[in-house]
Specification:
single chain; mainly alpha; repeat; 3 domains; about 60% helix; extended; 6 strands; Ion_trans_dom; Helix Hairpins
Length: about 500
């Protein structure tokens, strides 16, 4: 029951009342430091009160709980050294990481905790010592891996075509080799080494990604842009395309160019994932993700309707015409592709002035240019501009969340020998087996002195105001003039007290 009440207090809007009640309940806890403590019992979602305060973005309760966990090591004048308990904060030995919970929640208030002590200092320590070097090395290794895969695709086994052309539009001169013909020369064996590296890399990607999907859940794993959700979809699809290409090569199935081309596009697009390691480029990946999966996805539905309608109209118009004079609409798939190019203004309107064009072509093309180019493209630009404006206001905050997510990901993937635990063991200071983070801070005494005087005369004004209200309630039966005089008296008293407080503050400043 006590643990349930602690979780309820974390969610209370009245922060001051919640903190006092939290301390009161813990004062009756018999196991304050042991494993049976009320603060360490999780709820049905696996969240302790401390983790729940982080997920809900309750910065007041989080700071209150951290003040209870800190130990003042020494102080010298304005300098003070504090040891902060990293229990439940450090993701090194946690199955459900506190940092991962913060960056995966949809509440923006939770990301403000990343700027608070000691979370900010812990993330900076991990990122600067281990995260950034490992991430840059991983980016370089991935780029070299993609260069190897690209070279294998460029020099894939082809042979001259032996069959005759089936039509005048047939332009094929090379065809794919069979498996027995693909690995004969020294160059083929060299390419085989690169292909083996590519396949091994695809298998490693699947081995690393699938456990995280099962642990976090597909919806949360692929849906969070800060965690790199769209990039996880890209890299998993890339690995699957590599395996499909390998199966088609081993079975001598024609058409391997389809999965191979998809893999090339997806693999090189995934390089943008490593931009999150740089403050200049990281926020732009967030903008690209939000534009693609927000604005562009909605816009594509409207674009598909317009293209289907006008492409069908163009095909019907030129269905009776000679395709040699105007071949952009000679069949229905080519009509769709040509209309798509016209929609994006990649090409101009096809026309042949040596022959007579159907009258309806001019009418349909005129309406298509008005709807597609002038209306819909400008609508897309306006939508993307609005998304850019919204993301730009919180891009630094989003980049810090990206850094935290990347740090937690690397800490889980890398062996323990390459990523030692951050902080100081409590046994060095006689604080048990817990780990602590040492933070040095500078306290300005003048600032605290001024704040103390400010709070003093604010409290005095508040008391005088309450007394004035009590006088008004007691004197309800008195005449209206007496009520006004009592109100003016209370205001003058409050004004005098406020003036006295400002004089004290001005004198001490």
């Amino acid at each position: 029951i006590g643990n349930t009440v602690l979780h309820i207090l974390v969610l209370q809007p009245n922060k001051t009342f919640a903190c006092h009640m939290y301390s009161l309940i813990l004062s009756y806890d018999r196991n304050k430091e042991g494993p049976g403590s009320l603060e360490l019992i999780p709820n049905n979602e696996g969240l302790t009160p401390f983790k729940l305060a982080g997920v809900e973005g309750n910065t007041v309760m989080f700071q209150y709980l951290m003040q209870k966990r800190k130990h003042n090591l020494w102080s010298f004048g304005p300098l003070i050294t504090v040891l902060y308990d990293l229990t439940e904060i450090d993701s090194w030995a946690e199955d459900q990481s506190f940092l991962e919970l913060i960056v995966s929640t949809k509440k923006r208030e939770a990301r403000q905790i990343l700027d608070l002590t000691p979370v900010k200092e812990l993330v900076n320590l991990k990122w600067n010592m281990y995260g950034r070097p490992y991430f840059c090395f991983l980016a370089l290794f991935y780029i070299l891996y993609m260069v190897c895969f690209t070279m294998c695709c460029v020099y894939r086994p082809l042979k001259p075509r032996t069959g005759n052309k089936t039509s005048n539009r047939d332009n094929t001169i090379y065809v794919q080799k069979m498996l027995q013909e693909s690995y004969v020369t020294y160059e083929d064996e060299l390419r085989l080494v690169g292909e083996l590296i590519t396949v091994i890399g695809a298998v490693v990607i699947l081995i690393l990604e699938i456990p995280d999907i099962l642990r976090v859940g597909a919806a949360k794993y692929f849906g969070q842009t800060i965690l790199g959700g769209p990039f996880h979809i890209i890299v998993i699809t890339y690995a699957c395309m590599i395996l499909v290409t390998m199966v088609m090569r081993l079975t001598s199935t024609t058409g391997e160019v389809v999965p191979m081309s998809f893999a090339l596009v997806l693999g090189w697009c995934n390089v943008m994932y490593f931009a999150r390691g740089f403050q200049m480029l990281g926020p732009f990946t967030i903008m690209i993700q939000k534009m693609i999966f927000g604005d562009l996805m909605r816009f594509c539905w409207l674009m598909a309707v317009v293209i289907l309608g006008f492409a069908s109209a163009f095909y019907i118009i030129f269905q009776t015409e000679n395709p040699e004079n105007l071949g952009q609409f000679y069949n229905y798939p080519m009509s769709l592709f040509t209309t798509f190019e016209l929609f994006l203004t990649i090409i101009d309107g096809p026309a042949n002035y040596d022959v007579d064009l159907p009258f309806m072509y001019s009418v349909v093309y005129f309406s298509f240019a008005i709807i597609a180019t002038l209306l819909m493209l400008n609508l897309l630009i306006a939508m993307m501009g609005d998304t850019h404006w919204r993301v730009a206001h919180e891009r630094d905050e989003l980049w810090r969340a990206q850094v935290v997510a990347t740090t937690v990901m690397l800490e889980r993937k890398l062996p323990r020998c390459l990523w030692p635990r951050s902080g100081i063991c409590g046994r060095e200071y006689g604080l048990g087996d817990r780990w602590y983070l040492r933070v040095e801070d500078r306290v300005d005494p003048n600032k605290h002195k001024m704040m103390r005087y400010t709070e003093a005369f604010k409290a005095q004004d508040r008391d005088n105001y309450d007394k004035g209200l009590e006088k008004l309630e007691i004197s309800k039966s008195i005449l209206y003039k007496k009520e006004l005089s009592a109100l003016s008296l209370s205001r003058s008293t409050s004004r005098t007290s406020s003036h006295r407080g400002w004089e004290i503050l001005r004198r001490n400043t």
